[in-house]
Design brief:
- The chain has a single domain, classed as Alpha-Beta Barrel (TIM Barrel).
- Helix content is 19%, strand content 18%.
- The chain is built from six helices and nine strands.
- The chain has a nine-stranded mixed beta sheet, with helices on one face.
- The longest helix is centred in the C-terminal third of the chain and has 14 residues.
- It is globular.
Length: 284
Amino acid sequence: MRRSGHFSNFGFRASDSLRISVLRVSDFSLLETPAIRRYIPFVSDSLVVNEIFLSIQGESTWAGLPCVFVRLTACDLRCSYCDTAYAFGEGRRQPLAGILDEVQRLAAPFPAIRPRLPLVELTGGEPLLQPAALALLASLADARFTVLLETSGAHDISKVDARVHRIMDLKCPASGESARNCWSNLEHLKPTDELKFVISTNEDYDWARQMIAQHRLELLCPLLFSWAQPLLAGQADPSLKSLPPGHSLITRRELAERILADALPVRFQAQLHKLIWPPDQRGV
């Protein structure tokens, strides 16, 4: 989508900002500009949602458990391995109450046990680009769900409700976005959070190992080494960053063996949902 000075490029006009229903935008970093932020208060009780679905949690220490995923639209990063580029611009604005109702509907068949299942994860895209995401997270926690937030690590996590389990990336060099890491976020991590490194190359592994040693990250929270499964042809969005020159891809076996050889205090993870369903299937 070509950008201009007209708000119609964001799916609405300033004159009807209270009646927004659909938003399609290729670059949500524009939300950070003053011209757009003036209109955020009009829509603070709603979010642009790409999809909501029930599946099996495929990653993190919560892997294998039933989980309702709320995928929000928009991301201001373009990681080389991103497998959800369809969430960059596709989405429909929904009121928070409607999102909560849909989560409750999907969760209704599960027995009333504690801790409550299914889990609920807010993901994207980058959820923290939309200010109302904080209110949604708090409301889900109020409803006594176990709430997970998947975030890139490029945005401040300090305002996220303390009941939420934050799963935060540290972007490795092969992502093409390591310069966007917000290092001050490390100060806000707690033992119930998780820190994820997506490992595409041997150089990523070396960098991640160095960061763990340099910052004593194992003392903060569980550490995840997630193998970056190569994208299928239909997943490789042209806007994604290219692999840096000189990097050599690492296989999942090589990654596992290097973790063992170096006795790293990390959890190896593959994406479980991609072992169950086709790697490019949406809504799982």
